[in-house]
Amino acid sequence: MYRILMIAPTSFFSDYGGHIRMLEEARILCKLGQQVKLVTYYRGRDVDGLDIVRTRPAPWRADYEVGSSRHKFVFDILLAWKSLATALRYHPDIIHAHMHEGALIGSIISRLTGAPMVFDFQGSLTSEMLDHHFLRPGGGWQRAFRWLEDQVNHAAPVILASSKNAAELLVSKFAVEPARVQAVPDCVNVDVFRPREPADEADLAALKAQWGIPAERVVVAYLGLLAPYQGTHLLIEAAHIIQRVRKDVHFLIMGFPNVDRYRMKAIELGVADRVTFTGRINYEDAPRYLRMGDVAVAPKITETEGCGKLLNYMACALPTVAFDTPVSREYLGEHGIYAATGNAEALAAAILQLVVAPEHGFTLGKRLKARAAERFSWDDSGMRLLNIYDALTAYRSRVQSTPVQNVKSQMSKIK
């Protein structure tokens, strides 16, 4: 059994994106008999069955939200202190650090304790800051953070990539040695995320009535963060385009933050009666809410991050429209409907393809569910994680002195 210290530089758990990867990795490791302790920020939602350690809040800002913020520098200092204190008591065998901030903290603790570290890469740090408009393109701060990102990438003996696209990005853009990059893709629990069945109809009818969604409408579902880099504005523009030709299409937009901003945009475009905003949906409730959908959509623009929501759509057998990015292709394969990235008219046209041909959508949905079950199982990813841990700990004494050189040959043997 491994004692695993996970470092999560975010407000875990928050029902979206990378948090779901952290949660499901911790769960599968526990299911496989490992011991996991997760250190994270002060805020967030506790999850049954997980040992979560939280920092103290910053005294002047205890109500922070998701996204890049100058306050995160202080939060990460508090996280580093709490992680080190926890490691000294816990004596971990493995440090599993999420995101670049976690990897920076984890690398320091690894040197101090001798526990080898894996870096769970979920996208480019600099690209995320640009997406959140925290950095100005081409500015000095961008160059500084890109330098820091390079240092973190090259300090980690093993990097876990959440997609093949991310693995290729690390090698091609950041010049990380291929032997140090291991693809451990985002996955989905197909027993929890499942298609709707006849027995669900009464419950789903009541849920639609609760949210004011007319029963006769075709429901286009989105579940995720609401932000420009997620293409939320383009989704509302697509709703505006579609309502000109079809009055029976309804957009169910589930997620946070910025709900009021996007609700106002729907009002301005005259589609407020065609769009329902639910706000935050707990991860445990997501399968039920997704079963209201007839079509799913993922208009994410950024190409450096994963897109785990696609896997949830697939497991629910929802025919899915996405922008034509490498990650979308990796998950959906030939069974997705693709639109030119960043183009609201193309997005609307792709959605209409499925609205006017529900039989084709049904066929695509069945194929996507089968693809999710065959290729994206958390059980498989859990065993892969243990194989990687084994390779690290088998050479633990040498890892402490020259981690990259000693581990590189062992990582190349893991398939």
Q: What report would you give on this structure?
A:
The chain has 415 residues and is of the alpha/beta class. Helix content is 47%, strand content 15%. It contains 17 helices and 13 strands. The strands form two sheets. A seven-stranded parallel sheet has the order 3-2-1-4-5-6-7, with helices on both faces. Helix 9 (259-268) links the parallel strand 9 (249-254) and strand 10 (275-279). The longest helix has 20 residues, at 71-90. It is globular and about 65 Å long. The two termini are 22 Å apart.
Roughly how much helix do the residues carry, as a percent range?
A: 40-55%
Unreliable stretches:
none
Strand arrangement in the largest pleated sheet? 3-2-1-4-5-6-7
Rg calculated over all Cα atoms: 22 Å
Number of helices in the DSSP assignment:
17
Approximate shape: globular
Report the count of strand segments.
13
Mean pLDDT: 91
